């Protein structure tokens, strides 16, 4: 609650108590002196007037003043028409300032030197992070400059697992018939795409060894000329091996393919296949609380679930609520019992008729396919004959309900729902084992790795949250840091984040060198890429324009309509309050209006 509201409450309560005292005193007046009604009414009126005048004296109402408009020149303002205004200021990143413009180190300094400026007109690419807080609700207009040709948006996953597929998407501006390519760290072409009419594109690639790597996104025009090349940071996690429990109701080729995928991915695998009649093979633990708590992900087919008893099903649901991820493979329509169990957990799914699906096999060029799939292994080397060869056609039952999982499959192939601290999912793809059998183990891994990443138990370490990209000389915001967090620069220097009192748990850093930095906290360590000051200018300009447009939308009024005000003078109100309070004090102590009632004697 604001101090103004507290002041109003205190004054109203005080005035109410004073009026109540006067009324009660009048009603309880007895024999000797009885105050006149007009006297009590006058005291009540003076009390209320005194309270109102005191409130206005402490918080005088604002008065309208002549508005001043401040034109702010930012980067890219060269060549743009400057709106007519009394004052024009140029911020450091702006180019050649027009005659009469004042050079200012930041917007806050400009507003301190021109306190009457109640409306701002920003010209150019937009306000840097250091200047946005200084707007403080003033009326704001924005005259944007044309963005440079090249990348305007570029989005890549923050983290991915080794061997997993990932997607880079974005938008290019100012280029007709643009073609975008993705190069791996070795300079090999991985993926290409034509930008659509809006400039949007999507590129796919495969993560390799754990660590922080740099891919390159390159945009060419219609004449195949390179317009811009931008680094894309890809962080491949070196997390602890995922603990996977694999349960099958009967021997099947999908079980064998999943075992091979788990081993190739480096998971800690325990498995079991049932033969019927209580017989089975494998080293899977019992379905008890302790055993399930030691797993990160359970994969079981619908037949195995149907074979579980009521106690095992209850234990499984309890483990999911405790953080375990469970994926049920149901290539046929789930049984009524399974549907009911899923519904009790909060996941209501419906299946449609089976449809055919054929995975995207990637580039048809051998070199690009090798970069797409990787070099292979000793027992499964890369096969050049796979280039241009179609993948097997698979079938699945489209699912509705829940949320779609990550991965290379269509959204209706797998659906999931958060249950307590864990996640529960269903996948209906049939015969995915045909993919590794046809030499495309990478497509099989892309499917199941994406689903596993969606459902597996989350780690204990809470990752920091980043606001936008990091750039030399620009303030960047990082949230979720502890008090001892530090940022290690490539040259070995240490940057201490400065906490922001206005943002809960967030801090600002100002990098001074380009390259990979590392954020060290008590919970772990995370790499981040800091771009050079002149790198990826299109991305930086687009970010400035989005942030400035957000300030314009948040402004309550436009430059032409916002009334400018300033606090009024307090002394007339306080003088009036003093006069009224003196009259109230004088009347309260005067004998005027007090009529004496003569005492009556018996027999008189």
Automatic annotation (TrEMBL):
Keywords: Membrane, Transmembrane, Transmembrane helix
Record field: transmembrane: 6-24, 36-55, 570-588
Domain of life according to the entry: Bacteria
Key word Transmembrane present: yes
Protein name per UniProt: Carboxypeptidase regulatory-like domain-containing protein
Organism whose genome encodes this protein: Luteimonas flava
Highest classification ranks of the organism: Bacteria, Pseudomonadati, Pseudomonadota, Gammaproteobacteria, Lysobacterales
